[in-house]
Structure formats: C-alpha cells, structure tokens
Amino acid sequence: MNPAGWVLDFVGALMNQVEWVQDLVGALMNQVEWVQDVVGALMNQVEWVQDFVGALMNEVEWVQDFVGALMNQVEWLQDFVGALMDQVEWVQDFVGALMNQVEWVQDFVGALMDQAEWVQDFVGGLMNRAAWVKDFVGALMNQVECVQDLD
Fold first, then answer.
1. Which domain holds residue 52?
2. Where does the source fall among the domains of life (predicted)?
3. Rounded to 5 degrees, what are φ and ψ at 98?
C-alpha cells in the first residue's frame, strides 16, 4: 500500500469518526431535550399538587368551621332536650291534675316527635357530609401515592 492511499484511508476513517461523534452529540442533545421535557412535566405536577393541597386546606378549614357549628348545634340540642325534659315533667303534672287537657298534651307530643324527626334528618345529613369528606381524603391519598411513584 502506498503512503498516499494510507493517508486517504486514515482521513476517511477520521471523517467517519467525526460523523459518529456528531451523531452522538445529536443523540445527547435529544436526550437533554427529553430530560428538560420530563422536568417541565414534573414541575407542572408539583404545581398541581400545590394547588390541590391549597384546595384541601380550604376544605379542612371549612370542615373545622362546620364541626364548630355542629358542636354549637349539639350544645343547643342538649339544652333543648333538657328543657323538653323539664317540659315533659310539667306536662305529666298537668295531665295528672287536668284530665280534660289530654288532647292538648297529645298535640304537644306530636310536635315533639316532629322535632325529633328533624333532628334525625339533620344528623343524617351530617353523616353524609362526613362520608363525602372521607372519600375526598381517600382521593387525595391516591394522588399523593401517584406523586410519590413519580420519584
């Protein structure tokens, strides 16, 4: 083989090596772009989680306010039941003394039963809200697991 042919072969091999390096750099640039896209998607997910946690904190505050109002209602109901118990005692004395007032006492007891039904409906509504909050927290925990799985 003559030296000029050897030099041409060497230069050709170098050019192939340069082309291979250029292809490698292009592939690396594509990889960098992909990593940037993944990081952007993760940042969007972090922002979504922050918004979700903010909404959850608002919901927690609402639930705390609701529980406070419920506790006030329970206290009122306890006072009301205490007053009703006093009233029942008075009614018993009244019925014992005035037999001709039986019809009035029956109407009064009917009104008390209506009040008890309203209280039962109110408590049922509260139980439905508690189930909704439980489902909401469960969905949040699922979202947290999804975010943890991304790590």
1. 43-150
2. Eukaryota
3. -125, 90
Give the chain's end-to-end CA distance (angstroms, integer): 59
Counted domains in the chain: 1
**What mean pLDDT is reported for the chain?**
89
What secondary structure letter does DSSP report for 138? H
Tokens of 50: 């922050």
151: Cα separation from own chain's centroid: 22
Residue type, 89: E
CB count within 10 Å of CB 133 equals 15
Query: What is the per-residue pLDDT across 85-118, written as a single tens digit (0 to 9) for each?
Result: 999 998 888 778 876 666 766 888 998 898 999 9
Alpha-carbon distance of 25 to 40, in angstroms, equals 22
d(CA 89, CA 77): 18
Kindly report the CA angle at 142 between 46 and 69, in degrees rounded to 5? 95
